Amino acid sequence: MTRPPTSRDLARLAGVSQATVSRVLTNNPKVNPETRARVLQVLKDANYTPNALARAMKTGRTDTIGVFMTRVTSPFHAELLDEIGRVLSSMGLHMILWNIEHDPEETVAAVLQQRLVDGFVLTSATYDSKLHTMALASGTPTVLLHRGIDGLDCDQVVGDNWQGAYDAGRYLVDAGHTDIGLVTLRATGNTSRDRDAGFRAALADAGVKLKPSNVITVGVPHADGHAAAEKLLSRKKPPTAIYTITDLLAFGILDGARAIGAHVPDDVWVIGFDNTDMAAWESFDLTSVEQPVHAIVETGIDLLRDRIADPDRPTQIVTLPCPLAIRGSTANRPLSAAKD
Amino acid sequence: MTRPPTSRDLARLAGVSQATVSRVLTNNPKVNPETRARVLQVLKDANYTPNALARAMKTGRTDTIGVFMTRVTSPFHAELLDEIGRVLSSMGLHMILWNIEHDPEETVAAVLQQRLVDGFVLTSATYDSKLHTMALASGTPTVLLHRGIDGLDCDQVVGDNWQGAYDAGRYLVDAGHTDIGLVTLRATGNTSRDRDAGFRAALADAGVKLKPSNVITVGVPHADGHAAAEKLLSRKKPPTAIYTITDLLAFGILDGARAIGAHVPDDVWVIGFDNTDMAAWESFDLTSVEQPVHAIVETGIDLLRDRIADPDRPTQIVTLPCPLAIRGSTANRPLSAAKD
DNA sequence: GCGAGGGATGAATACGTATACACTTCCAGA
DNA sequence: TCTGGAAGTGTATACGTATTCATCCCTCGC
After folding, report:
1. In the prediction, which pLDDT does A114 show?
2. Which GO terms describe its molecular function (chains A, B) (predicted)?
């Protein structure tokens, strides 16, 4: 037959009622072992799979999680997405992926209310977006991963960006750097904000002044890091170290340095943020503050499942440490050399 | 009310039947303009969104496409995924993403029959996988993007990998190279096979011998390219050019070269395949055979929609050209130098 | 003035499953 | 012997929407 067989078709074949077939499918204990075996055999012979839509409509559960993300081509986001996919599938959950860069706001708004997922994962919460508000208002369980919103009554799992940035700053200061560059982003979310603020705090605490001319605010692409490095390093007296708030920008900075003949780390140290896989590549060999992607995702999905199971539980905000991964872009060297 | 309002609730509010509300929602012309306006107002006031599951169950269409993919963290795959997401969302379609690396075979098999998507996009078809066979057997419209299966009666859109590889080989030969390295993958799909075979054919046609010791078969990660380059370039008489079948491996090769002090392109030329965004980065500046990602995806999704609309139309196989993007990793230089 | 026909709407049903409820059988306990 | 209840199964219904069919009213043409 061209139409896929339904549980009713198979019930007839097995000589039982549709209800019994359904009970077998849901592992309902109230069914005679012999009957169960017979039905299972029929199901198997017919290569039957329950219609997920009908099941979802009846139970109200779709076993699907909606993920909102941006810039999938960015190395860190790709790793984050990969990890989310891994964890969800290990739990038997499907993933619907929405790229909020591509989807117009009204589309997203409609999607939120369609009840076609059991929960939402937001990875790119920003202060100037209403997405998280709308998601919460929809009544669908929601968790914020990677980026959080302070004070929002919503489960959140984020890295301790401020501390990670502080440690990076402290590390540079301790190595003797006093003329330090900061390539930063306009703070649209807590990540960029804290990665900026924590770093500044470390320098301030150490009494190292951050020259305004050493701070460059850019956009997200690699090319912007490239341009910033050229700008900073083509000065008469360029900074001896540059910290930036994403690995992607750091790669651009390394490239920019290469382009104008500045050597890393001899002429300038470079530190990124995210510790993506690529940071370990020979081309970059980048010191970077690590995002505990695995733990963030694992913890976040757990929180989401807990909330799906019990929507009224108190919200939980988890902050995970971001340790510094040291590599060749900041090879330690004598203090005097750094100051030179 | 805590439960989302249904069309029946709103029908009562508007003083019409549920059927009329439904007619308004589906833009059925057989409804009085005044009634339509009144209903629309009520819908808007209630901020109503139709239940996607119920609608899908009734119409048999979910407006969702299932995408099967691997290695999202690989630059090319990330670009492919991004493009697929862009195109689907521009058509108002949702995307369920399955990573066939993570999902066990039986999970995938079950998914294929659940009718929860209108169509499948397979981007990683391999000869030793049954995925494409199972997808076709499920009766759900399916298209193969990027990787194809020769002779399979299924819509396919692929790059002309063979020609692209041939052109790359020809380009090296024309530049005077005679001692050429090939870093290749075990041919699990048509891409790796053709990117290998086309290159070999170009050399053979030109009478340039490919030394067996110059051919290294590796795995997909960056590190494997790195290792291969070290192996090839640490010889007494290393090849003067290396071609490989993915950009990711090429990046590894560039890194490996850097690691042992070989200079690109003075000591060795390097050519990759995919022409990812990263190939243009200063660190790599990689000559690469371009995959027309945009055209592949756009064409592929069009084919898929056509097939959804008419399942019985003849299958179509589209092959798009893969031009060579030349960059600094193969800067042209005098022939004599190349031979030296 | 009357029937035909079209426009607008409501009532009823179906999609495929899960589940509350009713029913039968059979056995234990009085 | 009778009864209560458990085990197993079937019947009926609901999920929320789209759609067929029937109904009603109004207009138009004769």
Report:
1. 86
2. DNA-binding transcription factor activity; transcription cis-regulatory region binding
